[in-house]
Structure formats: structure tokens, C-alpha cells
Amino acid sequence: MKEIFEDTATAFALKTDSELERAYFLFKLIANEPLVKIGTAVTNFAIKAHLPVEKLIRASVFDHFCGGVNEEECLVVADKMFEKGVSTILDYSVEGQEVENQLDSCYEKALRTLDFVKENAAIPFIVFKPTGFGRFKLYQKITEGQSLNQDEKAEWQRVVNRYDKVCKKAHELEVSILIDGEESWMQGAADELVEAMMRKYNQKKAIVFNTLQTYRWDRLDYLKRLHKDAIKNNYFIGMKVVRGAYMEKENDRAEEKGYPSPICASKKATDENFDNVVAYMVDNLDTMSLFAGTHNEISSYRLMEQMEAGDIKHNDPRIWFGQLYGMSDHISFNLAKEGYNVAKYLPFGPVKDVMPYLIRRAEENTSVAGQTSRELTLLKKERKRRKI
Predict the structure, then answer these.
(1) Distance between alpha carbon 75 and the CA centroid of its chain, in Å?
(2) How confident is the model at residue 46 (pLDDT cuts 50, 70, 90)?
(3) d(CA 384, CA 388)
(4) Residue 245 backbone phi and psi in degrees, to 5
(5) What sections of 284-350 are H helices per DSSP?
(6) How far apart are the first and last CA of the chain?
(7) Which of 21, 22, 330, 350 is most buried, with most CB under 10 Å away?
(8) In whole angstroms, what is the distance from residue 12 CA to residue 4 CA?
(9) 161: confidence class by pLDDT, cuts 50, 70, 90
(10) pLDDT-derived band of residue 365, with 50, 70 and 90 as boundaries?
């Protein structure tokens, strides 16, 4: 298979010279771990102290990794990307809500976003996080098998209703919905709820997608069990497959509480688990739809090779590649040029509310070996090509 990810002219075609320079500057900063830690602390302090830093954040890190503060601003970005064949997943990146009015606000935002994107070919997905629709501690209590009191039972029913109304509307509008994965000690309750939504709304095709974080060593077995249930109950599985985002937190908690870590023993084992899950899904496309969320070039090539070996068309609607906006443009835009289905997660929301997401992006780029240096190498190559 030809090496397609080196084509920087395609990768950065949408970036002006000044946007390319900003990206280069940002990734140079992110490559410096102490600087990321200091910058994170200063930014958090500035926002909590209501210092006038939003314009600075907006002009730098926010506009690189986010589509805007609202859907209308995102639409400009989505339309530009779609001209190059890359679709958009609108992601209202406000998370970890704790009180009912905040949870209702996230739920209502999801309903409004569905109305906003219906019949827009550029935006075939929306996404929400379980903790946008329900309290973390409530998911945790259910996952751990603890009994709920009457108030908690009523609260959980409200969570179920939020999921059901959003998934029902997605089904009616034929807009696919991705439900993110979170920490293992609350994920069990979220999984069961998403499975119930799949049984209800994935009767004809995958509309509701759960997330498998494959740095967890048990996820392939979980998928196989779910597959048996899907065959038995005649529904389609939609699954976003990623490596995962909470590794340090997972390992620290397992050590602190004295239970075996749910995380694979090594990066190599995680990579193998990801590729095995993807391969299993491609082998079972008669009952599954795959959204492969990866910034890993080797895994992307493997999926392309498996599609070629199985004589699966590049644009088969059951297989999507996905990356985050502001990262891995060399993968996204070059895959799209080859005719594959590709979508970028496009976060949006008020600057101060999206900061936890942005800080996590910076920290993940710092901790993932090779990610930032690869971005920098490609940006340098494009700067040289443009003679900037």
C-alpha cells in the first residue's frame, strides 16, 4: 500500500500561512512538558480569577482545536472541511456536570444540535458524554452494584429519559450519535444504557454508537458478548473504537484501591488490542458499523489493508475513520482524498467551559510519545514547501 500520509500539501491545504505558523508555534509549546504544566496552571487561575484572557486563548489554542463558541461558527469550519471530503462531528465539549439544570442544558443542547445538523451532509454525527447527561457518582453507584434510594432511582430515570429522547430524535432524523467512553468505574452503567438504546434504535442500521476504549484489556471480550446479543435480538452494533483517554487515572486508582488494573500492560498490548477489535468488527460488518478513532498511522494503514483484502469499498458507509480537529490532518485529509469516509471531532462551546477539554488535549499530546514530534515534522515540511 502506498504511503499517503506524507503528502503535506493535501494535509494542510485549508491552512493559511499564518494558521500554519500558529500550529507550528502551538506544537512547539506542547512539546515542552514543563511549559504545558505551567501554562495549564496559569490558564486555570486566570479563568477562575476572571482575568481578561479569553481573547488570547481564543486566538491561540481555542481556534486551533475548536470550531467556535456556537454551532453557527462551527458551520463555517465544517463547510470548508467538507469541500476536501472531510465530514464533521459536532461536539459540545462541556463535561462533568453535577446539577440537574446543567444536565438538562447539555441534553437540550444535544436536541438543538440534531435540529441544526439534520439534512446537512457535512455533519453526519453528533456526540455527547455520559457525564453530560448524568452525574458521575450515580453511574458509579450503578456500575458497582449498589442499591439506589428513591431519589436516586428518580434521578436515574431522568438520565434514561435524556438518552432515550436524544437517541429517538437521532433515529428519526437519521443522524448517527456517538456516545463517548469514560472511566471504567462508571462505564458499566453507561454501557448498559447505550446497549438498551442500540436494541431500540439500531433495528435497521447503526444510529447509536457506543465507545470501546481498547487500552482496557477486556474490551474485545465485551464486544464479542455484545455481538451474540445483537444476533439474538436482531439489532446492529455501532462502535467507536479508540485507544483511550484516562490511563494514568485508571492505573492510579487501581493501585490505590488494590484491584488489578483494567489497562493493558504495555503500549504494544494496547495497539494489538485496538487492531484486533477493529479486525473483528470489519469481519462482522453484516451486523456492525465501525468508527475507528485513531491518530495512529500504522493502525490506519492496517484498516485500509483489511478493507482492500475484503474487497470493501473505500466509502462503505459502515466504516469511518476519525480524528480530532487540530490534530493529524495528514491522516484525515489524505484519507479523504483517497475516498475513505473521514470525520473530525469539532468541539465547540464557551471558551471557559471548553478549557478542561483543551487542557486534556495539551496534556495528551505531551504524554503520547511521538505524536507531537510527528506533527512538528510535518508542519516543518509544509513550511519548507511553501518557503515560509
Answers:
(1) 19
(2) low
(3) 6
(4) -130, 5
(5) 297-309, 329-337
(6) 32
(7) 330
(8) 14
(9) very high
(10) low
CA dist 326 and 345 (Å) reads: 9
Count of residues making up the chain: 388
Please give the C-alpha separations between residue 367 and each of 12, 89, 329, 371, in angstroms, as whole numbers.
Answer: 24, 25, 19, 9
Helical axes 71-83 vs 100-117, angle rounded to 10°:
40
- Cell digits of residue 337: 482524498
Query: Which positions ≥6 away from 285 have C-beta within 8 Å?
Result: 312, 316, 318, 319
Residue 157, pLDDT score = 97
Contacts of 379 by beta carbon, 8 Å cutoff, 6+ apart? 12, 20, 23, 24, 27
Could you list the beta-strand ranges (E) of the chain.
86-92, 125-128, 176-179, 208-213, 237-242, 288-293, 319-324, 342-348
Compute φ and ψ for 122, nearest 5 degrees. -75, -20
Cα dist from 216 to 83, 195, 282, 289, 376, whole Å: 37, 19, 20, 20, 30
Rounded Cα gap, residues 287 and 57, in angstroms: 44
User: 111-134 burial by CB neighbour count: b if 16+ within 10 A, else e?
Assistant: eebbebbeebebbbbbbbbbbbbb
State how far the Cα of 47 lies from the Cα of 37, in Å rounded to an integer: 16
What's the pLDDT score for residue 369? Answer: 54
- The model's pLDDT over 54-110, given as tens digits with 9 standing for 90+, comes to 777 887 788 899 999 999 999 999 999 999 999 999 988 765 567 888 899 889 999
362 pLDDT band, cuts 50/70/90, is low
For residue 46, the one-letter residue type is A
**Across 31-46, average pLDDT:** 68
**3-state class (DSSP) for residue 273:** helix
Local structure of residue 147 (DSSP, 8 states): P
pLDDT in tens, 294-324: 999 999 999 999 999 999 999 999 999 999 9
Q: Which residues neighbour 60 within 8 Å (Cβ) at sequence distance 6 or greater?
A: 22, 26
